[in-house]
Structure to design on (336 residues):
C-alpha cells in the first residue's frame, strides 16, 4: 500500500507534469528543427514567436469569454487557436518578406541569419509586452480536472489522491495529433517530400524544379502552427508571461540539439529527455522516500537536488555536455 501511495505521489508531481511539459517542449523543438533543417539557420526568435501566438490566442479567448462563447468543459482557448495560428502565420510571413528574404537572396552565412533572428526576437518580445503587458495572464477556463485528488480518494479509499488536469490531457492528445499530422504531411504529400528534398540537398532540389519560395512559405506556416500550439498549451497548463517564453528558448533549443538538430524524431525525444530531467532534478523527493524507505531511514530534508528556480540550469548543463561530446545529437542531426 505504501508503495502504491509513492507511485501516486510520483505520478502527480513528476510523471504526469513531465509528460505534459515534454509534449510542449517537443512541439517547440520541432519548430526550431524545421527552420534549421530547411531554412538552415538557428531561429532565436522562436520562443517569442510562441509568446506572440499565445498572446493572440489569449486576446481572442478573452473576447469569446466576454460574449459568452465557449466550448465548456474544454478551454475556450482551443476555439481561439485556429485564429491565433492564422494571425501568427501572417506575422511570420511578413517578417520573412520584410527581413529574412533579403539575407536569403544574398546567400548570407547561417551565423548572419542567426544574428538577424536575435534582432527579430527583441522586436517580437517588445511588441508582445507592449500589447499584453509583462505580468501573468491567466486565460484557462472550463473543467479544471479530469479527475481530482478528492474524487480519486473517494473512489479508491487510498490516502493519496491522483489529480489529472484537463490541460495536461489536452496537451498530450494535441501533441500526438500534431506530430502524426506533421509526419504524414512530410512523408506522404508532394509538398512535404519537396521540403525534405530541399533540406537534404538544396542545389539538387532546385535542379529538380522545386520552388524554393513555396518551400519557405510552407515552412513558416508549419512553424507558426507549431509555435502557437506549443505556446498556448504551455500557457493553459501554467500561465502566460512573456519573459517565461523568452526563457523557454533554452530548453527548446536544448531539446532540439540533444535529439539532433534538423531531425524531427530527435526533437521529440529531446523534448521529453529535457522535461523529465528538469522535473526529476528539481522535485523534492522527501514524500516519495517516506513511503518507500523504512522509518529509520526517512529523510529530514526535502531531498531536492536543485530548487525549481534553477530548472533551466539543467537544460543548460545537458546542452553543454551534448555539445562537448556529441554535437550531432543522439539521433545524429546536422553538426553545429
Amino acid at each position: 500500500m505504501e508503495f502504491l501511495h509513492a507511485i501516486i505521489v510520483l505520478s502527480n508531481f513528476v510523471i504526469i507534469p513531465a509528460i505534459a511539459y515534454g509534449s510542449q517542449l517537443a512541439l517547440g523543438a520541432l519548430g526550431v528543427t524545421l527552420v534549421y533543417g530547411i531554412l538552415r539557420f538557428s531561429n532565436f526568435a522562436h520562443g517569442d514567436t510562441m509568446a506572440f501566438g499565445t498572446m493572440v490566442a489569449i486576446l481572442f479567448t478573452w473576447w469569446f469569454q466576454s460574449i459568452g462563447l465557449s466550448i465548456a468543459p474544454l478551454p475556450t482557448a482551443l476555439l481561439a487557436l485556429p485564429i491565433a495560428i492564422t494571425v501568427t502565420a501572417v506575422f511570420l510571413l511578413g517578417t520573412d518578406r520584410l527581413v529574412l528574404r533579403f539575407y536569403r537572396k544574398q546567400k548570407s552565412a547561417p551565423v548572419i541569419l542567426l544574428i538577424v533572428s536575435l534582432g527579430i526576437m527583441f522586436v517580437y518580445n517588445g511588441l508582445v509586452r507592449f500589447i499584453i503587458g509583462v505580468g501573468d495572464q491567466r486565460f484557462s477556463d472550463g473543467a479544471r480536472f479530469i479527475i481530482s485528488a478528492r474524487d480519486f480518494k473517494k473512489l479508491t479509499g487510498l490516502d493519496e489522491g491522483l489529480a489529472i488536469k484537463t490541460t495536461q490531457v489536452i496537451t498530450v492528445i494535441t501533441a500526438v495529433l500534431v506530430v502524426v499530422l506533421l509526419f504524414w504531411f512530410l512523408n506522404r504529400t508532394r509538398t512535404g517530400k519537396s521540403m525534405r528534398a530541399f533540406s537534404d540537398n538544396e542545389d539538387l532540389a532546385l535542379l529538380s524544379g522545386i520552388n524554393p519560395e513555396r518551400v519557405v512559405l510552407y515552412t513558416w506556416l508549419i512553424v507558426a502552427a507549431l509555435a502557437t500550439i506549443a505556446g498556448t498549451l504551455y500557457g493553459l497548463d501554467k500561465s502566460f508571461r512573456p519573459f517565461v517564453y523568452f526563457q523557454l528558448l533554452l530548453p527548446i533549443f536544448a531539446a532540439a540539439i540533444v535529439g539532433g538538430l534538423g531531425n524531427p524524431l530527435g526533437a521529440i525525444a529531446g523534448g521529453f529527455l529535457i522535461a523529465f530531467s528538469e522535473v526529476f532534478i528539481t522535485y523534492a523527493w522527501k514524500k516519495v522516500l517516506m513511503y518507500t524507505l523504512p522509518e529509520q531511514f526517512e529523510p529530514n530534508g526535502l531531498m531536492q537536488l536543485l530548487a525549481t528556480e534553477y530548472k533551466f540550469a539543467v537544460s543548460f548543463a545537458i546542452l553543454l555536455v551534448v555539445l562537448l561530446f556529441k554535437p550531432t545529437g543522439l539521433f545524429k542531426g546536422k553538426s553545429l
The longest helix spans residues 2-39.
